[in-house]
Amino acid sequence: MSAYAALTRAGYRAYTRDKTTLFFTFAFPLLFLVVFGLIFHGKEVEQSGQPYINYIAPGVLSWGVANAAVFGVGFVLMQWRRDDILRLIRMTPVRLPAVLASRYWLAVVIGIVQTALFVGVALLPWFGLRPAGSWPLVLPVLVLGITAFLALGVIVGSFAKTPEAVAAVANCLMIPMAFLSGSFFPLDAMPQWMQSLAHALPLFYLNDGVSAALTGNGSGGDIAVACAVLTGVAVVLGALALKTFRWSDKS
Fold first, then answer.
1. Residue 143's pLDDT band (boundaries 50, 70, 90)?
2. What is the 3-state secondary structure (H, E, C) of the chain?
3. Reported pTM
């Protein structure tokens, strides 16, 4: 526990000192919300009659949280492995679960802060988000989403050897997934084949679960399905992450 606490504190201090990371974690998703929210303010999606903010807010929030989880752990593991910090940690009594758990809880706290800040801005009159009564259910959906995408980030960070490689691989995964999952554009307005493809992507279920809980644009069944799928993805990717994890570039 002492090793876990020390790693968590070190991760927190390193995170708060990195101004670039702070900006892209918290401000970047808000920029998307502001741009799309102002462009589509007062407009409705023709296919469903729902306000655009009901699609924009949950989608951008889900993408922002998932993106932060992937990039956060991916960059850290790559840097720790490159600088031989992981090798030094391995020589101590610290075990892999403590290393990953410290990053996991940091990612969960960051995700909760992201969500509170994002929803607070979306509630402003310029955007007009109106939460549904089921909004507290956003928390379990987001935690499961963070878990799944953190595992994906561990896999990326275990193979990438440079910051450029982490950014390239993570962006190649997250940007297409964001568009295909409906984070930036309502799936109802997309071709049928794209709507079908979206169901194979974990970000779709994170979007769907957050949307159903936050705006009521769905049912309790949609939230349950999202949680179940994200749990399955987290288990599969978590197993792959443990299998592929490397303490150094030589092992």
1. very high
2. CHHHHHHHHHHHHHHHHCHHHHHHHHHHHHHHHHHHHHHCCCCECCCCCCECHHHHHHHHHHHHHHHHHHHHHHHHHHHHHHCCHHHHHHCCCCCHHHHHHHHHHHHHHHHHHHHHHHHHHHCCCCCCCCCCCCHHHHHHHHHHHHHHHHHHHHHHHHHCCCHHHHHHHHHHHHHHHHHHCCCCCCHHHCCHHHHHHHCCCHHHHHHHHHHHHHHCCCCHHHHHHHHHHHHHHHHHHHHHHHHHCCCCCCC
3. 0.87
Please give the Cα distance from 93 to 171 (Å, whole number).
Answer: 35
Q: Are 174 and 66 in contact (CB under 8 A)?
A: yes
**R_g (Cα) of the chain, nearest Å:** 18
108-128: pLDDT as tens digits:
998 999 899 888 888 888 787
